[in-house]
Write a structure and sequence with these properties.
Layout lengths: L5 H8 L9 H21 L1 E2 L2 E2 L15 E4 L8 E5 L1 H12 L7 E5 L2 E5 L8 E5 L3 E5 L2 H12 L1
Parallel strand pairs: 3-5, 4-6, 5-7, 6-8
Antiparallel strand pairs: 1-2
Subcellular location: Secreted, Cell wall
Protein name: Polygalacturonase
Keywords: Cell wall, Membrane, Secreted, Transmembrane, Transmembrane helix
Length: 150
């Protein structure tokens, strides 16, 4: 006699009985399948819509009446260019709008290298998806400029 393994082989040998021996086994199998499909669905869902192939680019939300982009002030998100002056110019422009509801400085995707800078009130600093602010220490910056001047 040839033995078949697995559910299909068992079903071929015993065609009159169901592949699940009891209703408890069937219920456990369906419960595990439902949980697995829930986890797969959650991983592929954003805001209730199924997303296949990634997240679509959306414009940044407008949280303040006036919105500026860091690139408008000369910022470059390559991870090498120092963007402290661009951040400071953006903050300075927004500080003038305090009585009008303030402003939002949007940092687009990229790696933005900067030294420390001060923020102002009535300001929203919005980082887009995949935007990273890389901070360096002021002492390192002074050492760097001394080497490049000599």
């Amino acid at each position: 006699m040839v033995e078949n393994s697995g559910v299909l082989g068992w079903f071929l040998l015993n065609p009159k009985t169901p592949p699940f021996a009891s209703h408890k086994t069937l219920f456990a199998f369906l419960w595990v399948a439902a949980l697995a499909s829930l986890f797969v669905w959650q991983r592929n869902t954003i805001s209730g819509f199924l997303v296949l192939g990634g997240v679509p680019m959306q414009p940044p939300p407008k949280l303040r009446p006036v919105v500026f982009c860091l690139t408008e002030f000369g910022g470059v998100g390559d991870g090498v260019t120092l963007n402290t002056e661009a951040f400071e110019r953006g903050v300075r422009a927004i500080s003038k709008l305090g009585n009008k509801g303030g402003g939002q400085l949007t940092v687009p995707p990229g790696r933005w290298l900067t030294a420390p800078f001060n923020l102002t009130s009535h300001m929203t600093l919005f980082l887009a998806l995949d935007a990273v602010i890389l901070a360096i220490q002021v002492g390192f910056l002074l050492f760097f400029f001394q080497i490049s001047i000599q």
